[in-house]
Structures are given as C-alpha cells and as structure tokens.
C-alpha cells in the first residue's frame, strides 16, 4: 500500500480513539473505531472502495505490525504466573511479605524499589513487578490503580535513563550527528542527567509515597477500593491468591516463587548478552553494555520466560508440588488469561500503523518543526518536549516517536546551532523525555496496557487515574526545560524544578487534607 500524506487528518484516528476510551470506559471498541476511521480516511483520500477497502487496509496493517515475539512472551509469562500461583508459592510469599511489609508505605516503597531494580526492559518490568507485588499491595488494601501507576512510572522512566537496557540501543541507533564527536552511546549517556521527565517521575512516586496522599481520580479510586473492602470484610485475599480461576495449593514455600522468577530474570539478562553477540568471536562488542545495547530484547524475553517455566517444571514435578496434567492445564489457562492484553496490543499496533505508515503523521509533524527554523533558541528544549509528548501520546509509542523526531531535531539543530554539542544534549534529552511522557499516559501505549495487565487493573481506570499525575510531572519538566533553555545550567534547572515539584505537591496535599476535613465534617 502506498502511503498518503493526510496532513492534520493523520492525527484524527488516535485522537478519536483516546476521546472515546476516556468517555465510554471501553478500550476495545474505541481502538477499533480509531483504526476504522483512519482506514476510511486513507481509502477515501486515495480513491479506493469505501466499503471493503477499509477492512482490507486494517487487516494488512495488522499483519505487518503484529509483533509475534511480544505476543509469545505475554503468553509464556501468563503461563508462568499461573503455574506459580497454583503451586501455593504466591500465597506463602504473600504471608511472608505481610509480616515484613506491614504498612502501606513499606509495600509501596518495595514496589517502587523492585520497579527500579528491573531496568533491563519495560515489558519485562511491567509484568514481573505486577506479579510479585500484587499479594503485598492487596494485603495492605492498596488499589490496583495505585499499583498500576507505580509499575508504569518505574518502567519506561527507569529504562530510558539506564545505560544497560533495551531502550539504550533504541535511542543510540538514532543519535548519529556531526554536531558531536562522541559515539551515539556516549551521547545517550550525556543526555541522561537532562531527562527531566524520567527523573521527576521517579521523584514524584517517591514523594507521593512518603507524603502518603493522593489527589484527583486516584484519590477517588483509593476511596472506592477502601469502601469495597469494607463491604467484603474477611474476603480480601480471595481475588488475589486464586486469581483467574487458578486454584492455589493450601500451602507452598517462598522458593516456589523465587526460583522461577529469579531464573526468569537471570536468563533474560544472559539472553540479552547472547543475542547482542557478547560471546561470539569476531563481533565488535567487547563489553556487556555494548552487547545489551545490540541485543534482541523480544527474543531474549522469550528465552527468559522459557527458562522460568523450565525451572518451575523441575521444581514442582519431581517434588510432587504439581502433577504433569495440572502443570500443563494451569500453563494453558495462564496463557489464555493474557489474551485480553494481547488483543489490546494488537489493536494498538494497528492504530499506530494506520497513523504512522498510511497517513504519515510523522511527515506532518516534521513539516511543522522543520518550517520553524527561526524559533527562539532558548525555547527549543521546551518546544521539543511538547512536540514529542504530543506525538508519542497520539501514536502510543516512545520508541517510534524518538525514532521519528531525533533525526529531525538533529538536522534542525545542526543547521541553526552548528558545533554546539552541549546544547544539543539538552534538546535531545527534551525529545526523549517528551516521548516517555506521551508513552506514559497514552491509552494505546504498550507499557500502559502491560502495566494494567500486570497489576490486574481495568485498563481505562488505570489511564484515567494516572493522567493527572503524568500531566503534573510534565508541567514541572516543561518548566525545567524552559529554565535549561535560558541558563544552560543543569544544577540550576534541576534545583528549580525539584523545588516546584515539592512545593506543588505540598500545596495539593494541603488542599486535599482540607477537603477531607470538610467531607468528614459533613458526614458527622
């Protein structure tokens, strides 16, 4: 199919999908409507048949964009979660964690810590943290929306500032420029301190947990969760430990969950080194960092999940924790439970393909930025942040966004500010930060979808509760980039922005407390 430059109409399908998803609270029909609207625009503009052609276009895009490796990994991870749950290991881990993590703060801090530790890949982060921490957060009566938010906020944000991650290679592959003598990987390292959104996102999570408050839709979700638990007193564990129709054993050991999960993590890291050529003779990669950057993360995740399942099999079958028949049935059931998440991913990939490949939204965005070569130099980081955030939100992918915008940003920068490599790092960092922001709050983003799946949270509810938090962090980041554009000082920009972040949260907390006091007085 030949692409058609639809101009501003190229952004209509994702915008419609987002509006419908937030309005109807139903993501499947919203994504389908967005896909079909884009296919209709393409068919009408290109002169094709208006009845059959849109369906044909949608199917062809789905076939081209469908990532089988990610779908297989989701199914394998669902199978692993199911067999671990059936072993009783999660029940025992939940009992252990409840004794050690006896407060909400400890449970939330532990979730954040685990999210930061698993920095290799955002997909792996989302599903693994959710699996491990659900029993702990449920025991402390923390809503699934809050869990999904912490998972999502420590997935892409930590991966984009981790030198050893699948994101490092995705960014580095687009960082070829004559404005700097450094290698693409070293340019990526230089951009890390200026990635304000990722840094402030982690700081925001830390402060919200430490200050122990929520606001907006998240506060209402927490209140609804507490009210629901009060109505179902004494049954708070049933939906956690026997989730998705899998009946857990009456007893288990912590090793029943630790051995498969640790095997999964270790095998994934080793697989990334292997697929990156770390042990191959004659390869150019002589360090673990370089090999990680050149790895195939999707295939590595599949290998890691298979090793995790094998470890569970060798642990459960010989010790009669599970029979062969039960093990296979639970594995199949777990894979089936991941089908809703896989379907959402399929639809999101298709919508992204229609928007990017068929209607050429990147070309339209590129024409806007390329036409503005006379922009004020000090506003360039802020402009790059806003533009990349908007595009990432619309198409639902950070990788695609910085793959689109970084070459454009570099070409514009080299024409306007030749030889100014230090300022280039600020502008590139703003582009990366905006891409993560849009990815973080977009309903059609892979990581947003997988965070919902990992936490066992309704997808639209996760999007709605997280959006105000993401916008607040983005506003602080934007102020930071405005300061950076005028001062070119990292310390001044960080100190100013962190002060705004803390001051803003304290003001919101004070307002929330006054509102709570008023509500309590009215009830009394």
Describe the fold and architecture.
The protein has 524 residues and is mostly helical. The protein has a domain at 68-181 and 251-340. The chain has helices spanning 12-24, 27-46, 53-65, 68-87, 89-100, 104-117, 122-139, 144-153, 156-159, 166-172, 184-191, 196-211, 217-231, 238-241, 255-275, 288-293, 297-316, 324-337, 339-358, 361-370, 380-395, 398-416, 421-441, 446-455, 459-487, 490-523. Helix 1 packs antiparallel against helix 2 (27-46). The longest helix has 34 residues, at 490-523. 50% of the residues are buried.
Please describe the topology of this protein.
Blueprint: H1 12-24, H2 27-46, H3 53-65, H4 68-87, H5 89-100, H6 104-117, H7 122-139, H8 144-153, H9 156-159, H10 166-172, H11 184-191, H12 196-211, H13 217-231, H14 238-241, H15 255-275, H16 288-293, H17 297-316, H18 324-337, H19 339-358, H20 361-370, H21 380-395, H22 398-416, H23 421-441, H24 446-455, H25 459-487, H26 490-523
Helix pairs in contact: 1-2, 2-3, 2-19, 3-19, 4-17, 4-18, 5-7, 6-7, 6-8, 6-12, 7-8, 7-24, 8-24, 8-25, 10-11, 11-23, 12-25, 12-26, 13-25, 15-17, 19-24, 20-22, 21-22, 21-23, 21-25, 22-23, 23-25, 25-26
Structural class: mainly alpha
Oligomer class: single chain
Distance, first to last CA: 66 Å
H and E order: HHHHHHHHHHHHHHHHHHHHHHHHHH
**What is the averaged pLDDT score?**
79
Assess the beta-strand content as a share of residues: under 5%
Largest sheet: none
Radius of gyration over alpha carbons?
23 Å
Task: Please report the number of helical segments.
Answer: 26
Weakly predicted, low-confidence segments: 234-244
Count the E strands: 0
Percentage of helical residues? Answer: over 70%
The dominant shape is globular
């Amino acid at each position: 199919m030949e692409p058609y430059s639809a101009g501003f109409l190229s952004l209509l399908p994702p915008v419609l999908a987002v509006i419908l998803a937030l309005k109807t609270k139903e993501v499947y029909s919203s994504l389908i409507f967005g896909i079909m609207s884009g296919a209709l625009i393409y068919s009408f503009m290109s002169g094709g048949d208006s009845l059959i052609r849109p369906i044909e276009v949608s199917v062809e895009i789905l076939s081209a964009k469908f990532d089988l490796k990610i779908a297989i990994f989701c199914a394998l991870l669902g199978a692993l979660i199911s067999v671990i749950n059936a072993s009783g290991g999660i029940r025992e881990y939940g009992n252990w964690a409840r004794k050690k993590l006896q407060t909400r703060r400890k449970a939330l801090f532990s979730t954040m810590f685990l999210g930061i530790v698993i920095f290799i890949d955002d997909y792996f982060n989302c599903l693994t943290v959710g699996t491990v921490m659900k029993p702990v957060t449920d025991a402390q009566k923390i809503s699934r929306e809050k869990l999904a938010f912490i998972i999502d906020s420590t997935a892409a944000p930590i991966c984009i500032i981790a030198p050893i991650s699948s994101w490092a290679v995705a960014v580095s592959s687009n960082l070829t420029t004559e404005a700097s003598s450094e290698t693409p990987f070293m340019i990526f390292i230089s951009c890390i301190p200026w990635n304000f959104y990722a840094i402030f996102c982690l700081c925001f999570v830390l402060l919200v947990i430490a200050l122990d408050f929520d606001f907006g839709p998240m506060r209402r979700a927490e209140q609804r969760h507490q009210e629901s638990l009060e109505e179902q007193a004494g049954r708070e564990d049933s939906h956690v430990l026997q989730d998705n129709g899998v009946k857990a054993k009456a007893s288990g050991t912590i090793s029943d969950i630790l051995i498969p999960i640790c095997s999964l993590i270790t095998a994934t890291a080793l697989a990334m080194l292997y697929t990156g050529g770390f042990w191959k003779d004659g390869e150019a990669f002589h360090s673990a960092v370089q090999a990680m950057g050149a790895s195939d993360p999707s295939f590595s995740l599949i290998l890691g999940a298979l090793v995790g399942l094998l470890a569970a099999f060798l642990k459960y079958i010989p010790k009669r924790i599970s029979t062969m028949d039960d093990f296979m049935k639970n594995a199949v059931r777990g894979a089936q439970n991941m089908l809703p998440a896989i379907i959402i991913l399929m639809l999101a990939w298709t919508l992204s393909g229609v928007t990017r490949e068929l209607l050429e939204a990147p070309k339209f965005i590129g024409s806007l930025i390329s036409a503005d070569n006379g922009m004020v130099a000090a506003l360039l980081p802020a402009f790059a942040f806003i533009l990349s955030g908007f595009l990432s939100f619309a198409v639902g992918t950070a990788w695609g966004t910085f793959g689109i915008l970084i070459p454009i940003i570099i070409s514009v920068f080299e024409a306007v500010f030749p030889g100014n490599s230090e300022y280039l790092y600020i502008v590139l960092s703003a582009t990366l930060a905006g891409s993560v922001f849009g990815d973080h709050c977009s309903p059609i983003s892979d990581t947003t979808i997988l965070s919902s799946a990992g936490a066992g949270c309704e997808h639209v509810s996760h999007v709605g509760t997280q959006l105000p938090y993401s916008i607040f962090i983005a506003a602080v980041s934007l102020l930071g980039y405005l300061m950076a554009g005028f001062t070119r000082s990292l310390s001044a920009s960080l100190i100013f922005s962190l002060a705004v972040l803390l001051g803003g949260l304290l003001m919101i907390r004070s307002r929330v407390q006054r509102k709570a006091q008023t509500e309590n007085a009215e009830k009394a």
